[in-house]
Amino acid sequence: MNIMNVDYSTKIPNNVNLSEDRQVLKALEGWHPGYIDWWNDMGPDGFQQSLVYLRTAYSVDPRGWAKFDYVKMPDYRWGILLAPQEENRVIPFGEHYGEPAWQEVPGEYRAALRRLIVIQGDTEPASVEQQRHLGKTAPSLYDLRNLFQVNVEEGRHLWAMVYLLQKYFGRDGREEADELLRRRSGDTDSPRMLGAFNEATPDWLSFFMFTYFTDRDGKMQLHSLAQSGFDPLSRTCRFMLTEEAHHMFVGETGISRVVQRTCEAMRAVGISDPADVAKVRALGVVDLPTIQKKLNLHYTLSLDLFGSEVSTNAANSFNSGIKGRFHETQIQDDHRLQNDTYPVLKLVDGQIKRVDEPALTALNMRLRDDYTQDCVKGLLRWNKIISTAGYDFKLTLPNVAFHRQIGEFRDIHATPDGVLIDAATWNKRNHEWLPSTSDGDFIASLMTPVTEIGQFAPWISAPKVGIDNKPGDFEYVKIET
Ligand SMILES: [Fe+2]
Ligand SMILES: [Fe+2]
Predict the structure, then answer these.
(1) What's the 45 CA to ligand 2 centre distance in angstroms?
(2) What is the DSSP annotation of 99-120?
(3) Which residues surround ligand 1, an ion (CB under 5 A)?
(4) N or C: which end of the chain has fewer CB within 10 A?
């Protein structure tokens, strides 16, 4: 069997030779009905009988891996796809630096590896749950299709993690796989594992912010796991990253199109002050200050996903060779970090200061810094749209001390500029920086669905190009009611 191509003859499409791995195939087939039940209960609300123009992976060759066709979502072929095995791959960091990568789970790291896989796995269905109501208010068929593409692929990412659990972790792996279908985003008794994945995604601006900022946390985590000494995990994550790029594209271009439309609407009536919220809202578009507030919220919730800045867990994961750094193999150092330091932002005597910490314990901070750098690119594009339209307004990333629930700054309050303030001031002013109920109500008032072919809601521009190079009047979803 050619590892590049995916075998569709088994119930579970795969490129891991499942037809000769009966035990794992059986375990996955046993898990399948529960997954479909979960999809029906917690997947997109409505549209399950509609034909959606989706891409499905038929290969893991980066030069051409997907084909597009109309599919009913419940018929999507969720499969197990791993990037090709690199010959003679060695562990690229930590105590085992230079040793051959593991094809089986090393006993001493079993619990730690399982934990990382379960945490990653838990985020995938969580986002589908968070986004399940959005189909009802999609601003176009194009956007509706993108939402569903993201949803089915997050479903596939769950399959990817479940495969690893079932193949490599025996009975407790199977139990964890069942638990992944049991937890629910936002549930009081049995929530998803990470904070940002229990927040609501109430509207399409939140969806774009989520796919830009929170999927990008996913990208950073997957990159770190793609370096793992445990080769099946590395290969799994490498292929997931191929799909993940589209999710962040949806976020980046989604926000671009909202900003674009707002600027056009302001110009058309000669509004000179983009901060004149009432005037801009009267045009039926989202004002830039509210976009900034949404950005503040989603960026900070995503920062929390990186965990504490200083963490012995992170150091242990690195030392043991199970989770590396972003672009580990391209970094010029000894890849062991025993004697290195890294500057960490900390609260010292009531001030935010950079303090050198052992590089090993500062790995979360380092990954978060890489993340922030990656986030900046989108802001540059959005600000370009604003300045080209002739407006003096800049979207910015808030200071890392602002609105944090995890790490160094969780017990203090700060403005987006990083000025420390007391609780009373925070309570009085936080609605200036984070979406208030009335901001949410305003955005909700714009969320009326548009389902005519080639049409877009008045608060968002049409995309520059279609998916799979389709023309503007392409019917991305054939809605069946
Ligand atoms: Fe994912
Ligand atoms: Fe994603």
Answers:
(1) 19
(2) SBPBSS--GGGHHHHHHHHHHH
(3) 124, 154, 157
(4) C
